[in-house]
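Bit of a strange request maybe. I'm writing a small parser for structure token strings and I need a real example to test against, not something I typed by hand. Could someone generate the tokens for this chain?
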Amino acid sequence: AGADAPPAAGVAARTEPAAAAAAEPAGAPRATRLDEIEWTEATGTTVVTLSGDGPFPAGSYGYFEMAGDKPRVLIKLRGLDQPYRRGALAVGTAAVVGIRTGWHVKETGNEQHVVVDLVPGGARLDGFEAIGSRIVLKLAPR
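Reply from user aminoacidic:
Good idea to test on real output. This should exercise your parser:
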């Protein structure tokens, strides 16, 4: 937490993972690219899984929930070397309209952005967890 600029207007909630108690050891394995974006749906809840080619250590990702006419969840993956190969994915579940990606080259390190477009007025982020080389989001109906 902390290094990002304050959230823009319209950001209903901003959540980032807790800072790691200790820095990752130099040379520790970490994701260099986002390999897959997959989703499943059961009983109205959509589970979106982002899979990398290595672990996503604490501090290498953050996420933001944005409300308004086009509600969405933005996930930022920091320090990757290669962009995701697809720009947009049609999802069409009870909670998720689609998923968009964008590659941002910055002086502080590259960022892969993943935007999960939610059904307006009908969905909310119900869980976010980083597990090794995967980041899992649970999106549920309101």
